[in-house]
Design brief:
Its main location: cytoplasm. GO terms for molecular function: GTP binding; GTPase activity; translation initiation factor activity. This is Translation initiation factor IF-2. About 30% of the residues lie in helices and about 25% in strands. The protein has about 375 residues and is an alpha+beta fold. It has a six-stranded mixed sheet with strand order 6-7-5-8-9-10, sandwiched between helices. It is elongated. The protein starts with a strand and ends with a strand. It binds guanosine-5'-diphosphate (GDP) and magnesium ion. The site of magnesium ion has 3 residues, from helix 4.
Amino acid sequence: GESISVQEYAKLLGIEATDVIKKLIGLGVMATLNNEIDAETAQILGAEYGVETKIKEPEKPEELEDIEDKPEELIERPPVVTVMGHVDHGKTSLLDAIREENVTATEAGGITQHIGAYQAQINGRKITFLDTPGHEAFTAMRARGAQATDIAILVVAADDGVMPQTVEAINHAKAAGVPVIVAINKIDKPDSNPDRVKQELTEHGLVSEDWGGETICVPVSAIRKEGLDTLLEMVLLVAEMQEIKANPDRPARGIVIEAELDKGRGPVATMLVLKGTLKVGQPLVAGSIFGKVRAMMDYKGRRIKSAGPSVPVEVLGLSDVPNAGDVFQVMDEKKARAVAGEIQTVKREEELRRSGKISLDELFNSM
Ligand code: GDP
Ligand code: MG
């Protein structure tokens, strides 16, 4: 941050510097011409002179600046899919069903690992699912300016229809410009009514294809594992109509899906690589946390050495636990440490301000 000297302050207000010094002494602050005035003192001074003092927000450090990729460097990557919808409409069941059906188990008896994302396979092609249903994760990521979702699957229970969180999800996807595929779930239920769901969706701008619109609606039953392949094929179809590409040959950048402190292993984060390739041994910044990748595991718990675009990985070697939704970026170690420190300072200042205290080196403006 910055501050202002007594001299500058006096000039700004068009008064004698000696007068400012007298006032300061009156306030119990010993000052000379070149002394800096902190924000709190400036506010008190301002009150004395009858001027309003505005505290200027400290400038944010360049938050994990991105590298620009050339169009010819971009190649296709798997689409990243988020599942959204009203509570109890079957988001978790659907994610579980897809995982059980379309994630090939490892030799050693199935998938033991459960990290915050996985990759399903259909017709030899991969789809990355963020295994954190609900729009909270989605919103957190958007707030951090990271678009980690290419396609949203909107789950609507056929026996319940469009509900408040369904509408919320539609609005989130719309705001993010993310295409929506509707999974009309629970079609096994006797009181299910897919047509009613389609009718209700039209009221929110989603008109089913078979009703002359552009929204793909797939009837599914997560419980009976019906319609899942069709749903995944539709995901790939929608993916083809978009430019889902990334440059794999650059320092990795992506997003933290979830993170926790593991007793034995220390900070553990599930990260989704969006661009570039993340490699063991590389230094990075995740949110405001410095790290150096000590080991990486894929969603099946296998140790891997590198992870390209759209690949979710569990990462060990962070110095602390980052937040879900934080952006991470690989950079050289010296810079990574400096950037992490800088961002932490700004965060601390923000916290202080929120708690009503003002840090010393904040910049202020008068009048
Ligand atoms: P979420 O809150 O959206 O994650 O919903 P859940 O996956 O937890 O499912 C809510 C309830 O609906 C659970 O009792 C599920 O067993 C049930 N459920 C989910 N999918 C289906 C389905 O396809 N058919 C039926 N009959 N029940 C389902
Ligand atoms: Mg759930």
